[in-house]
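re: ur question from earlier - yeah i can do the single chain one, its not a big deal. heres the input i used so u can compare w yours
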Amino acid sequence: MIIDFVPLWTFILGLAVFFYVLLDGFDLGVGILYGFAPDRPTRNLIMNSIAPVWDGNETWLVLGSIGLLAAFPLAFAIIIPAIYFPILLMLLALIFRGVAFEFHFRDAAHVTFWDRAFSIGSLVATFAQGVVLGSFIQGFAVEGRNFVGSSFDCFTPFSLFTGFALIFGYGLLGAGWLILKTEGDLQITSRRQGRWCFIAVLIAVGVVSIWTPLMDADIAHRWLSWPNMAYLSPVPIITLAITWFEWRALNNQSEVAPFIGAIGLFLMSYLGIAISLFPMIVPHHFTLWQAASSPDTQAFLIIGTMFLLPIILMYTAWSYWVFRGKVRADIGYH
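and the output i got, formated as tokens:
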């Protein structure tokens, strides 16, 4: 009897991608907003708000990448060449951002340079991730089992739009995190920035929701045909409810709700993309089952993953629990 591990690997890969987008997304968003901080004490507070946790967030990027390579090698072989340049740009920006983070605290003579480097690195990495997302949604040029397009095919009006849209999405997450972790003037400023990002995110979600079905007939049929419209109606209804919840949270005194609402919007957007493309992992060409590695390979890999995944979840949860509460000027990164 052959056990089908594809659903399990799909869940693991989807979980890794979502946790990366959520966790690294808010600290990239904090990095983007960092560039608007007015003075040194404010910048130090913003930096200290993510200092204990930002490194571990990228664990999920590694898990997702390795999971794609190991469990769905055909998809990896097609997708990576197609998005080579935005991936390269993202990795270089993440490295540059990490260096800037460390030198911010250790090179006082050039701290302004490292401040700008941290913010620009966050911005570029976010934009590159948005381009990757847009490229994935619109699909790749494939013949047989090979990518046959150009490395620049990923730069299209749609992918560039999703790149800019993700900047505001991560900005919303980052603002929610700063509202949760700070007090006083910085928290007030973060609420204002969160409202602007929220408005931009709403516009972006609306544009993508219209643009995507116009771009792909299969996606249009999935969402707009009957009875699919009835079956999938909870998705837009819940999204509208979360939208209302988030706007209220950004305009009242709640400290936790803005971050939760931003997470909810990302979760529903993620679910919407999954519904649009499932079961394809290389859009328009290969399903999850067609791109999967052999059952024996998946079975072998799942053993180690089942030990590793709970450990990652536990130390991630533990780190956030230990460093819960408000960040203060007298407690910082060393």
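The chain has a mean pLDDT of 89. not sure if urs matches, ping me
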